Fold this sequence. Notes:
Elements: H1 3-9, E1 19-28, E2 31-41, E3 46-50, H2 57-64, E4 72-77, H3 84-87, E5 90-93, H4 105-115, H5 120-133, H6 149-161, E6 167-171, H7 179-194, E7 198-202, H8 206-212, E8 215-220, E9 223-229, H9 230-236, E10 241-246, E11 259-264, E12 269-273, H10 279-289, E13 292-298, H11 302-312
Parallel strand pairs: 3-7, 3-8, 5-6, 6-7
Antiparallel strand pairs: 1-2, 1-4, 8-9, 10-12, 10-13, 11-12
Amino acid sequence: MSDSAKKRNCGSAQSAPTLELDHVTKRYQEVTAVNDLSLQVMPGEIFGLLGPNGAGKTSAIRMMLGIVAPDTGTVRLFGGTADRASLRHAGYLPEERGLYPKMSVHDNLTFFGELNGLDSITAQSQSRTWCERLDLGDRVDDKVESLSKGLQQKVQFIAAILHKPEFIAIDEPFTALDPVNVSQLRELLSEFRSEGRAILLSTHRMDQVEQLCDSICLISHGQELVQGRLREIKSSHPSHCVEIAFDGSGDFLNENPLVASWSQKPDCTEVRLREGADPQELLRAAISATLVRRFEIKEPSVEQIFIKLVGKA
């Protein structure tokens, strides 16, 4: 287990990880998709697995769910192996849809519910209940192929959670969803977290990572770049952006060696600092030049950290 994963778990000794990857590696011929990766997902946590295209995220998820076996290392799900019994308590939303287009929404969901251990009556009841909740009640008897991509994505999501899994792995869940449905899905994931379920989220939507994730692991070329609590990761990366509200013009920002660029916003001026510049020096320069009404150092976004670390890698 990596040091970052150990540190994250030391404060949660009373609860065992729902999922563990312990130094797993997966190769496909000459390509190493995942290289010595360790992470933990705890109960009641949304864990973001992030990385650029081809970073190895999907391969890692497939190992978590027993779809492929690691070449080296260990995968533990609910403290044991990812076998048929434990996988009945796991749900998976793949990036590529796996629905049967000629079958109705109801028949698809009933089928997947039964595959995941529900009896027929329960699967049918749950499928209709969830369709009503996600505004699909009037489409439940329609063929999947007649639905828009966004509605198909909602059906796929229901299929992943219909059997009330304790571990949910979701790969790009917001694909094709409009803002209303994104918000609806985000609320459901927060609800599942509050129920104590463990959620592994892989997405390129960094705004959703900011709003949802407790912890993240950023990988590139199958290797960990950074891992830990999201708040701690953000605080450990220095900000290069400040917002200033002041009287008068921004002439004092022009030709200032601390300033890379600046732009005027409706209620303040956003200043991007050069690498290594001290925001306090800029504050002193501003105070000497004008009346400063607000000066705020903006913490870096997940997207900024992502671009910086992946760019270096």
